[in-house]
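tool_call predict_complex ligand=2-acetamido-2-deoxy-beta-D-glucopyranose
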Amino acid sequence: MAETTKKNGHIVMVPLMAQGHIIPLLALARKILQSTTIFTITIATTPLNIQHLRSALSSSPYQIRLSELPYNSTQHGLPPNTETTENLTPTQIIKLFRSTHALEAPLRSLISQIAEEEGHLPLCTISDSLLGWVNNVAKSLGIRNICLSSSGAYGTLAYFSIWANLPHRKTHSDEFWVPGFPPNHRFHRTQLHGFLREADGNDDWSQCFLPQIALSMKSDGWVCNTVEELEPLGLQLLRDYLQLPVWAVGPILPSSALEGSKHRTGKESGVTLEACMEWMDLKNENSVVYVSFGSQNTISASQMMALAEGLEKSGRSFIWVVRPPVGFDIDGEFKEEWLPKGFEERMRDSKKGLLVRKWAPQLEILSHKSTGVFLSHCGWNSVLESLSNGVPLIGWPLAAEQTYNVKMLVEEMGVAVELTRTVESTICGEEVKKVIEIVMEKEGKGKKMKEKAKEIASHMRKAITEKREEKGSSVRAMDDLVRTILSPNSL
Ligand SMILES: *[C@@H]1O[C@H](CO)[C@@H](O)[C@H](O)[C@H]1NC(C)=O
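tool_result ok
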């Protein structure tokens, strides 16, 4: 098919070197190629990331080209073979961010090479919103750059505006207003990540982020992995703030984007899909609490104890994806000593709880009728996977823009309750139990949250309807994005 279709132009995509950013960008590439075959897409990144992408794409029906940008981490004061943020210290993460500038010249050469081979420049670049310098490269070559934010619109705006304006530094109050949000909207100091709370514009994080954010805000448009009907307020605010087109083309569910590849996330699952589904099949509808903090985050040792106590006290069935607590290798082996004495055994014997090590088939669990609620760090991908299956959430945000996601889920959407924030908080089993009870209630608040989550799931399904007479909002947004990319460059 692809060979016989006339290609109308080339798109060069540049991901941030972090697993949580590469996968969504790949998912977007696939989504674009699903909607039209007129583009050639090249993903350009560092050698090891290309290797990972190659294996993820090995069984892909889409033709995505991969292009290696030379990079050697030791030349940037990083350990050998360091090409993603995983397992790095904060200082190393800053070094890695800075080192991305070394990709600027190779990217320029790649674009020139494509221009030479094809007789014209690529149509545009699509870059991660934290790689503002790609916008510079594109502009200097006379092509457009579009930013991808793999977060929702509300979370993206909060994250970028707080970094760009540091509003918490301008008040002594714990609550403050964030530019871009309505005047009565308040954020709280405890919703800021430690680095951000301390940032003053001159610290290493600010120096690293602020110029990139400023450049990305001058690109030609933004793509958000979200749905128009999911966060109308967030999208309106983001558009007003950026004064740019923002295309809501989601939900792009990265784990389903990797379907067909042998190990979907490259990480081995701690449980087989069959065993997991078998366990769930024995449970009642909406009765299971699913607990996971994603592959990049974990909670503190004392929080882990409290969570286990709370789950046990609640008497509810649960699946918990366990990872070593803060201070230990998150991908390391999980030790029983991190849980109350005899906990795993009791849960196994009573069939109340299934502990899964490392990674579970999340999308299958969330789409199973037995799942009642998702206790989550509320990373955006998890939020999308939960809501697209009509599953309400218990929020426990840990990093990045997660606290803002939870704020929206609670205040704007009414589909979540926040249990606690960050790894620094102290919680007890009783609080965990109480929150689970609220959300699992068959009446009152729990019932309302479930209804809202189901309503949102139906909006999300409609958004991706391709039927001509009732094209969904995300399909129309993708059409418009394609049209914009194809329209003559106005630069
Ligand atoms: C990276 O650079 C170091 C030091 O400059 C060198 O020893 C090493 O061989 C390089 N690695 C690769 C893969 O080129």
